[in-house]
Amino acid sequence: MSCFPCSGSSGKAGEDAAALSPSPRPSAAKPAPDRSNSRSSSSVRRGGSIPHGPAKIFTFRELAIATKNFRKDCLLGEGGFGRVYKGHMENGQVIAVKQLDRNGFQGNREFLVEVLMLSLLHHPNLVRLIGYCADGDQRLLVYEYMLLGSLENHLHDRPPDREPLDWNARMRIAVGAAKGLEYLHDKANPPVIYRDFKPSNILLSEDYYPKLSDFGLAKLGPVGENTHVSTRVMGTYGYCAPEYAMTGQLTVKSDVYSFGVVFLELVTGRRAIDHTKPDGESNLVAWVRSTALSYLPSVLV
Ligand SMILES: Nc1ncnc2c1ncn2[C@@H]1O[C@H](COP(=O)(O)OP(=O)(O)OP(=O)(O)O)[C@@H](O)[C@H]1O
Ligand SMILES: [Mg+2]
C-alpha cells in the first residue's frame, strides 16, 4: 500500500520539523504523569531501544558494505520510499537501511522531514533513526533493526508457517502504538500529526513491542487558538479520516481515526480495504458499522 497525494501545496520541505522543539510541552497545571515513559530503562531496552545519540552521517560506501552491496538476500521489504535492507555495522550493530528509489513517489521532502522529525522526537514507541546518508544523489535512512518486522507482516501478509498473533500481543501492540501517538499529540511541542498510521508503519521488536516508523508525512499540529492545519491531503486509502480527506483540515483526531481503523484490523483480523470480500464487506469501517448496528436494539438506532 502506498501513500496518496491529492491537490494543493504542502509548504516548504522541512519547515515543519524545523519548528519542532524537542522539549516536552509546558503545562499550566501540574504536569500529567508521563505514563508513556514510565517504563524502566531496562524494560525500554527489552523493546530493543538503544540510548539516543545524534543522527550519524554515513557515507554510501559504509552502507553498501553493511548491506553486502544491497544484496537481494538482505532485502527486508519495499514501500513507497524505496527498498529496505538489513545490514551489519562493523561494530556488530544490526541496522535497517531504507534507500530512496529515485523513480518513486516520495522524495527529498519526505527524506528531510523524516530526518528532522526523528532527530527531535524520542520515545520508546517511535523507531530510532540511527543516521542517514545524503551522498551525491543517494538518500538513505538508517534505523534500528526491528526483529519482528511490521504489524502488516503478522496480521495480513503472514507466511503459512507463522502463527497468528495471540490476543495479548494484539492488545500490547495497540497500547504501545497508542502511547507513541499520545507522545506525538500531547507531549511533543508543538504537537505532531503523524498522518500515516497503518499496520505497515508499526514495526515490532522482540515480544511484539511496537514502534511507529515513517515520519515523512508528519505535520506540525495546530497551536494557540487554531483548531486545525490546512494542508494537502496525504495518507493511505482506508486509513485517512473522512473529514480530513474532504476538507484538507488536519487535526490530531485524523490520527485517532486511523488508530481506530488499525484497532478494528487487530480485533477482526480483516484488512481496512479488501476487494476480495463481497460487496458491503470490502470497507472494514463500513462493514463494522453495519454489523454493529444490526446488533443494537432498534430503539437505539
Ligand atoms: N527498521 C526496520 N526494521 C526491520 N524491518 C523494517 C524496518 N523498516 C522497514 N522494515 C520492513 O520493510 C518493509 C517496507 O517498509 P517501508 O516503510 O519502506 O514501506 P511500507 O510501510 O510497507 O509502505 P509505505 O511506503 O506505504 O509506508 C516493512 O513492511 C518492514 O517489513
Ligand atoms: Mg512504512
Automatic annotation (TrEMBL):
It is an enzyme of class 2 (transferase). It is found in: Cell membrane. ATP binds at K98. The keyword Transferase applies. GO terms for cellular component: plasma membrane. One of its GO terms (molecular function) is protein serine/threonine kinase activity. It is a lipid-anchor. It comes from the Eukaryota. It holds the Pfam family Pkinase. Its EC number is 2.7.11.1. Gene3D superfamilies: Phosphorylase Kinase, domain 1, Transferase(Phosphotransferase) domain 1. It catalyses: L-seryl-[protein] + ATP = O-phospho-L-seryl-[protein] + ADP + H(+); L-threonyl-[protein] + ATP = O-phospho-L-threonyl-[protein] + ADP + H(+). Keywords: ATP-binding, Cell membrane, Kinase, Lipoprotein, Membrane, Nucleotide-binding, Serine/threonine-protein kinase, Transferase. Residues 70-301 form the Protein kinase domain. Its main location: membrane. Residues 17-31, 38-49 have a biased composition (Low complexity). Residues 1-50 are annotated as: Disordered. Belongs to the protein kinase superfamily. Ser/Thr protein kinase family. PANTHER family: OS07G0668900 PROTEIN (PTHR47985:SF66). This is non-specific serine/threonine protein kinase. It comes from Aegilops tauschii subsp. strangulata (Goatgrass).
